[in-house]
Amino acid sequence: MDGPVVQAHAVGLTFQTADGPVHALKDVDLTIRRGDFVSFIGPSGCGKTTFLRCIAGLETPTAGRLTVNGMTPDDARRARAYGYVFQAPGLYPWRTIAGNIALPLEIMGFARADRAQRVARVLDLVDLAGFGGKYPWQLSGGMQQRASIARALSFDADILLMDEPFGALDEIVRDRLNEALLALWDKTGKTIGFVTHSIPEAVYLSTRIVVMSPRPGRIADIIDSPLPRQRPLEIRDTPEFIAVAHRVREGLRAGHSYD
Amino acid sequence: MRRAVPVLAVLAAIVVAWYLAAVWMNAPWVRDQAARAGATVTTGDLLRQTMTLERPVLPAPHQVAAGVWQGVTGQPITSKRSLVWHGWVTLSATLAGFAIGSLAGILLAVGIVHSRVMDMSIMPWAVASQTVPILAIAPMVIVVFASAGITGLLPKALISAWLSFFPVLVGMVKGLRASDAMQLDLMRSWNANEARILRHLRLPASLPYLFASLKVAVAAALVGTIVGELPAGAAQGLGARLLSGSYYGQTVQIWAALFAAAILAAALVWLIGLAERLILRRMGLAA
Q: Residue B169 is part of a domain; what is its CATH number?
């Protein structure tokens, strides 16, 4: 199936609150192609997480048209089109790492043998082979987050949605995980939607960077990255990288001068 | 040892206060007896006699201890005068009532959490049920069941369940709703149905709440059983011992039964606490 994975046309989401309506999203137009790594960056309240949740079918837009794999987001959710990674690993303390990764597989009704084989494969993919029998508290924060990424990968959804997955980790661990995520993206060819508030992270990871601004949440700029798919960490010192980072910063500043 | 010292200190204070109260409360009777016999009592006589009365207003601690000891070891435990036998009668009805009540509380909580209609219709009635004095309801339950030919454990267990379902219901409604919003979103992203969410997320996450409410419930179940034994013709159980003791002015027997009930309650709560520690630690939920 070719064609766009996510297609948003004039998507808007208004929350009715006691203080009147809040425009979380307004007139969002965006197309995400298969295999894209799209980052959403912006200050808090710009609707980046809300838009990701709309794609996931966890929120419903109140205006415009949004399709995922040509379906409504809710149908896509039912068809298990995506894996979602939150800021916190959210692993169950009473299940081992392997047990946690197998949980969505159990819920989706995969056979036992298939489950074991899939768990082993994704553990390998996130470089946690041999840790399946450990409990979450026995692992560091970065390892726990890798386990939660493995869990999102275990059922082979084409789309990976990540909401500030490395936001709670320190910079050194974050660099390593960014590198690992790029390698994983390269190996699996998944389409990734990634929310962050770090400019270097967005520029380093993405093929496209969506800069958003708040009140109402909207897209300020969409940047197609000129960087190659293979990216060593040192690429962050190249003029191309710095130019993209500069444009992102400009976009963020323009959004802020609005209010 | 460090933890035992404060507890023992309080215990010692209670025993001392109790002895003083026993002397003070039993003294008028001793003086009365002496006056009637035309004798005078010395302080030593007064102390000795107030602590050895057969039917004291307030028995001294050692008398109660002797009463409990006599009740437990003075006869075979199958005897109708054995505290062990009466305790077992009460315990079995308590456990049955606790099981029925807890199960009912959990099932109702599951229903309330999943159904708005149940939330709005059941909860007010559950609250109302607890405002009815159990002392007024218990005789009616006993009488109604007895007229249908049902006596013994079941009616008492139902009264006990009546008291014990409520804390479990309230605790579990809170516990089943305590799941993290993010965990619920994860479940939705996997398109899990409500039954799966209940089994894999809501029930495990509610366990700390469950154990807290089970401790309250088991104590309430014991109270319910004893109250249910009071109008039952005073034949079996600790409640019956309390009642017959008060009929015949056997204060030592009343206190012995009271202590037996207290020991039973403490043991039950301790057992649940033990299960709580073992299970929650195994699940990584221990605080």
A: 1.10.3720.10
